[in-house]
Amino acid sequence: MTMLQKPALELLIAAPRGFCAGVDRAIRIVELAIEKHGAPVYVRHEIVHNKYVVDTLKGQGAVFVEELDQVPEGVPVVFSAHGVPKSVPANAEDRGLTYLDATCPLVSKVHRQAERLVAQGKHIVFIGHAGHPEVIGTFGQVPPGAMTLIETVADAETFMPQDLTNIAFLTQTTLSVDDTRDVVTTLQRRFAAIQAPRPDDICYATSNRQNAVKAIAAMCDAMLVIGAPNSSNSVRLVEVAEREGTPARLIQRAADLDLAFLAGVGTLGITAGASAPEVLVRELVARLGEHFTINEREVETNRETISFKLPRGLEAAA
Ligand code: 0JX
Ligand code: SF4
Fold it and tell me: Does ligand 2 have an atom closer than 6 angstroms to the CB of 22?
């Protein structure tokens, strides 16, 4: 009996991909909090936007809730990597809850910039996606009315501040680098005096992952991005690939892949959002290996060495 030969599939795997320093730190904070305080440890919002990560931590004793009033008295609570409005730690203190803040230090940096600009009397134009927890958290650093959200070039064209000379902009950390450039160019054309953040608020991990996709997209017939639909940085990676003319799909797990998407594909690009663990990349490669004879190559456009310190009180437990 002759075995049927599996079709060949070339895999180009983008690097950097997957976990960033802020995600590593946030997950570690939950793990160390469980070690230190014992289960359960409550987490306000998904610690990062990834079901596999959340389910794994649930298995270790984490309980995920959306709001602080769902946290019972006497148990510690961790705030997610995306950051929280000032009212959240304030409420936790009022209730005497022990809390650990897993907000990424690069998100906290934007929070401090917002506070500083407001103290200088500036109105802030915030470029971001409405309803995203990072946007809600950053808006919650300043008094109501101190910041205006804009999402698109069209918003930048119509925004009209009270004082044209006293404005600044800040951005969400996980935006499309290219879209944001267009929005910023529009703002700078209309308001010559607008103050810009230095360096950009879009974080190193977001821009490195987008650059890595750009580097391989043109060589690929299709791309797969591992990440969740509510993960802003992951969704941006799909858009980057599509803009390069490469059909792309966001999948959470290998099992989500519809093999029909690979019809006629000889070279497939793979990447993972900042909240997607490497184990899910390996799971996908393994599934592809069941159907194809794969030849795998990593294309590295940048090497990341950044890591963030743990909050005080947890360092000792690390
Ligand atoms: O939706 P986001 O990309 O902001 O978050 P996710 O997918 O959890 O990524 C890690 C946390 C990023 C915060 O900036
Ligand atoms: Fe921090 Fe950037 Fe990672 Fe967000 S994507 S957690 S800002 S390093």
Answer: yes
Q: Is the pTM of this model over 0.85?
A: yes
Using CA atoms in the order 229, 12, 305, 136, what is the torsion angle rounded to 10 degrees? -10
Helix (H, G, I), strand (E, B) or coil at 32: helix
Domain ranges for the chain: 8-19+204-300, 21-104, 106-190
Classified by CATH at the fold level, domain 21-104 comes out as Rossmann fold (3.40.50)
Residue 116 makes CB contacts below 8 A (sequence gap 6+) with: none
Distance 164 CA to ligand 1 centre (A): 32
Helices 21-37, 105-119: inter-axial angle, 10-degree rounding: 100
Handedness of CA 118, 124, 127, 130 (dihedral sign): positive
- For 109-152, how does the pLDDT look when each residue is reduced to its tens digit (9 = 90+)? 999 999 999 999 999 999 999 999 999 999 999 999 999 999 99
Q: Could you tell me which CATH number the domain at 106-190 has?
A: 3.40.1010.20
Residue 176 Cβ < 6 Å to ligand 1: no
Among 28, 206, 230, 275, say which to mutate for ligand 2: greatest number of ligand atoms within 8 Å of CB: 206
Equal CATH topology for 8-19+204-300 and 21-104: no
Mutate to test the pocket of ligand 1, among 43, 79, 82, 176 (most ligand atoms within 8 A of CB): 82
Nearest-atom number in ligand 2 for the CA of 20 is 3
Specify the CATH architecture of the domain 8-19+204-300: 3-Layer(aba) Sandwich (3.40)
Residues sharing a CB contact under 8 Å with residue 27, sequence separation 6 or more, in sequence order: 47, 48, 53, 57
